[in-house]
Amino acid sequence: MSRNKLLKMGLLAVMGVIVVRLFFIQIVQHDEWVEKAAAQQTLMNVLKAERGEIYMLDGDEPVAVVMNATVYTVIIDPMVAEQDEVEKKLTEVLGDKRVAEWGDVFQDKSRRYYVVGKNVERRAAEQIAEAELTGVWLQASTKRVYPEGELAANLLGFVNADGVGQYGVEGALNDELVGTDGLLKTVKDINNVALSIGEDNIKIPAEDGENIVLTIDRNMQYNVEKIIAGKAKELGFQNVSAVVLDPNSGKVMAMANYPGYDPADYGNVKSAADYINHVVEDPFEPASVCKTFTFATGVEYGVMSPEKMFVNNGETTVDGWPIRNASQESFLLGDQTLQTAFNYSLNTGSTQVLRWLGGSETDINAQGMARLYDYYYNHFGLGQATGIELIEATGLLYAPEQVEYGVASTYANMTFGQNMQVTMIQVAAAIASIVNGGDYYTPTVVAGKMVDGEFVKNEEPKPVRQTVSKQTSETMREMLYGTRRAWRSNGTDKEGYYVGGKTGTAQVIKNGEYSFDETWATYVGVGGTEGELPEYVIMVRVWEENKLADGQKHALPTFNAIKDYVQDYLRIKPAA
Amino acid sequence: MFRGEQWMRGYRVRWVMRRHKSDRIIGALTVVLLGVGLIVIYTIGPMRVNVLNATYGSNYSENYFVIRQAINVILSLIVLVVAFKLPYQVIRKFSKVVMFGGLALSALLAILAVAGSSLAKCELGACRWFDFGGLSFQPAEVLKIGLVLYLAGLMAERKKEGKLSSLDFWIPFAVVSGLSLLFVVVIQKDLGTGVSLMAIILAMLFMSGVKIQYFIATLGVVAACGVVAIVSSPHRVERLLTFNSEDSSDTYHIENAMIAIGTGGLLGVGIGNSVQATGYLPESINDSVFAVMGETFGFVGLVVIVGCFTILLMRLLRTANYLQDTEESLVVVGVFAWATAHVVINIASMTGLIPLTGITLPLLSYGGTSMLFTAAALGLALQLSCYTSREPRTEEKVSASAKTTHEPRRRVA
Question: Which of A52, A235, A428, B379 gives A209 a disulfide partner, CB atoms 3.0 to 4.6 angstroms apart?
Fold first, then answer.
């Protein structure tokens, strides 16, 4: 073989190896390399949906109370950035928003990504952008801002660092508020710039979250919060909650908790309990306000009227357990009307109504318990979620068939609101139906939504069931009115107005037993023009750990203050 | 069939083969490959500009590389025509000038580098280029063409004198080859170019008809020097080691070259759709252009390109085999070895067959001087292809020695 031929063979052999190698890489290993390419070339950008804003009403006009603001993260490429220039400008503009020391930033120039500023406001970001500094760029993100500060914090909730709503409206309506993120999947170049090359690029635009308009009236919310904060200090109690409801629609006009917190600084609270909206999330024993429900049930079954007499001995025995009245004045003993029992919150009276419900004078029987339970649970919705658009507690109501608890002594207690747990919103919604002619409206905090700056109202709420007859409703309005009239010597209710209400002082179970050093005060009241249907329901609760709160002394004055404000604010006219 | 032909007046008159048409295939493939290279640079040049501007804040205009490459191609074609037309008998007069000029330039570069002159362009401690305000020039390219011309003359003359085995041949051969390699490999730390010089030297020596045992001995010396050279330079030890190590820029380079080639699949992603050229693949327009072509044209495209190179190289080899004049034949062997070394080393690097060596792909890579010198060499080979005879050279067998003359000759097609 000639040397020339040997070279030729050598050349062909080498080229052959190369072609085999190419076949191996391009055909055999093709998928593997495509995968590796995709791993480094694919840009997956989530197109963030903007979280919906939350509005309250100012009259009929929605006003934003939770908004989004764009804030910026400032990033530096130390390799390209000119240290002196960048340091001087950014130190000046960033101020306390600077999160890195310059020495650290420029120490290792091969690190080409360094975050130097966070939560930078738009104005500062604009100044940085205008300076056109090489190697400095801005990344926009959004955060929640609260133009009304702490207003309705427990109702509104907050958004955590992961963008998930927590507590309140933010938590309960997170799905509606959050919207749907879009996706941008595209091929990118080495500097992460999207390229139009390739056929697998995907762009799904983001769908922004809904802007929710609450039924809450901003002014009323603000003033109710102010009132309960004042009362808390004046009366010396740590916690006061209040809810104002429109009884003819179930719309919540104000839902206030004291103390609140700053949602913009939500991490700074003593405990997670501070986030709770006690109106809906905190079940408790409502105490004597429940007599309203017992008596309404009695009136419905025709076993009582306000004028009907019963014998009050100051206490009565059920299953060997004594049931005592709080008021033991001698003038209350002997034959009394049930209106008096209502006025002075006589537990013996409500227990007697339960006996009558079973058709008995002396015993609490199964029929009586079944009737009471049916009205409490099925008609008034006690011990079950109302369906309001918030995170809600169900509470607790023992059915008669419940082993151990479905007994006469439990039911006797239930006639005056013990041995059961409800939320304030359950009571307020039930009372609303009792005074409005018997129509139960599901309480609601959502009035509609803002679509492109227009307020799109939800359909007007319709009653979901009849709780009591119109006749019973009228009787109960009178009873509630009578209770206040009996106490009107203090002159809180002006002539020409209808105001009714019922106090409650609940014993609190601690370690499985009723405690004697802590009671919770409640008051539920209704009002409007005299001779017309009530226009508001107000429920108040006052309490503090290891303190005795009294319905008459603490909840009532709080109610009165709110009632005066609401009456004025709603421009309720006195009857001519 | 032989007839006397007078070359240029005043120059040597000699008997040559009748001048016929040049090897059209060599010429056509050269032009085709230059054209393909220009098209590829046209599509990825702007991407390269984009990457440089975004990453280093430079300010190249979008078509910077495209225009430069177009100019390079035009200049290369001019150089090719000049080398084709300028008679070899004229060129050969300057073989010593080119050879020793190349060595002198290399020495000058080394001195300038030591003096820290801005005329010497250095990267990572390796000073390989003269820099004349943006125009860079690698003296190693002069060494390549110098070696081809000088060694061909030296070998042909000694062979004619029957002195291929004497020191009269080996001393100048060793000195010139050794100095060239010393400058390129040791001083300029350019192993890739060193290997291509080595290929030129060894291929020409092999084809000169030197006794096979001498050739093998030379290989032994080269291998020994190679080991010493590699061990003496941490830079090169690293190069060899990176072939198996992670986290180095070379590993990244090869990995991304293979990603480009691999994603091309059978038919490629199509012109202008290379993603690897948008910054992932280093040296996308120069050393890595083969990988970009793999991504763009796929396996089929690369086989065509490799096929073009193979045919071109085989035609060079055939030309060398059919040139009766030993010196002319050896010149073409030198050009063949030069081009082959570049093609094989570049492609083998890009496909992960050998460690990465920064070397251009002839005619396709962006890069001024390399392309011009390649064009000159091919132009010269093309010129010589006009003088092939119909019969192959009565050439030495692989184990050429005194004994072989007694063996019956067998015709080689």
Answer: A52
